[in-house]
């Protein structure tokens, strides 16, 4: 269920432990959610290497709740293919981020 939901989602809700949830643009790739933050990208207070968070996926058509999953954030060094895929997933020009995190489901 999680894999299928994340393949279709362009945005997910992320709630780092101890912080409020944030709606973020994300990309499901290689079994993890990639989230770009900082720079001209979204800000996610509390998101840091090793932080546990809850990822909530809603239906892209009805916005109904589909699934919650616990995940651990890991700072990612992207290869060229992953960086290009993340840029292509964004629809608002050329994104510039400070960090990218892989949210790896528990």
UniProtKB/TrEMBL annotation:
InterPro entries noted in UniProt:
Split_barrel_FMN-bd (IPR012349)
What is the official name of this protein in its record? Uncharacterized protein
Source species, please?
Saccharothrix saharensis
């Amino acid at each position: 269920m999680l894999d299928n939901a994340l393949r279709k989602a362009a945005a997910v809700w992320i709630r780092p432990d101890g912080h409020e949830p944030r709606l973020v643009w994300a990309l499901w790739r290689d079994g993890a959610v990639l989230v770009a933050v900082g720079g001209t990208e979204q800000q996610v207070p509390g998101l840091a290497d090793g932080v546990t968070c809850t990822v909530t996926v809603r239906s892209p058509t009805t916005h109904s709740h589909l699934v919650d999953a616990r995940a651990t954030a890991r700072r990612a060094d992207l290869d060229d293919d992953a960086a290009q895929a993340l840029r292509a997933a964004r629809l608002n020009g050329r994104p510039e981020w400070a960090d990218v995190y892989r949210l790896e489901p528990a």
